Amino acid sequence: MSDTITKGAEAPSGDNTPKTSPEKKPERVASLWSDAIRDLRRNPVFIIGAVLVFCLLVISAVPGLFTDGSPTDGNACDLANSLQRPSAEHWFGFDVQGCDIYTRTVWGARNSIIVGVLTTLLVTVVGGLLGLWAGWKGGVTDSILSRFTEIFFSIPLLLGGMLIMSMLPWAGNALSVSLVMAVLGWPQIFRIMRASVLANKNNDYVMAARALGAGSGRITFRHIVPNAVAPVIVVSAISLGVYIGAEAALSYLGIGVQPPQISWGLMISDAQARFLDAPHVLLFPAAVLSVTVLAFIMLGDAVRDALDPKLR
């Protein structure tokens, strides 16, 4: 009987060292930006738009790499080639002046992209800073800036651009077009930034930072701006394509980018008179312009979907 009890009390053979549980990996801290980046990586619309935009940026930066030995300025023309159809050697054919349309289309991307990017940067910086100031200060400052903004907001972009460009003695290049459209386009970003700041400045995290003694500058740029800038990024991405289209419209009307510079709007304007005889002269630059505007709009729509919590 005692032997049985002794045997039952014996410890089981083997390692008696207590086993430690495996270390848990730290949980991922969710945030608006991390969730947005993860969603964008899975979004085919964003991927397609980003690839197209990247290609367009590269083409506008180094157009000579894509002309395959063609004239490097896009203005070398030969009347003997006037209105020749597309071929294996010249993919887009020739225009009325005997210029290679493919070469001019590639070089025309530079002015169009410069106008779109520069205008968007100016509009975002000016409108964003003024909207931040108006939303944070409130009161009289907000009222004065809002009334001042309404003056510019009431002016249509193309109509105002036509009026201002026709009066400027130094107009006719990408810089002047960008400045004019920035003057007329910043109120949209101002309103969006102001509304976003007003929606965020009374949140609990702002109140907590103020209670801990944080100054206005720290609260503004560490708490308000990161949470208020998302709508501005979305609208700016979509507006970039709109500004490219607006530049083409101004150049088409003869008050935007002027020869000998190359612009898709100028190419479309020159081709309209011979569309029935040689439709390729108009179709190729118009198609590239449409794809460019569509690419930036696709990019902006994907970013909007990723940054809008209501669409999750």
UniProtKB/TrEMBL annotation:
Domain ABC transmembrane type-1: 109-300
Protein location: Cell membrane
Top-level taxon of the source organism: Bacteria
Keywords: Cell membrane, Membrane, Transmembrane, Transmembrane helix, Transport
Region Disordered, residue ranges: 1-28
UniProt topology in membrane: Multi-pass membrane protein
Signal peptide annotation: none
Transmembrane regions listed in the UniProt entry: 45-66, 113-136, 148-168, 174-193, 228-246, 282-303
Protein name: ABC transporter permease
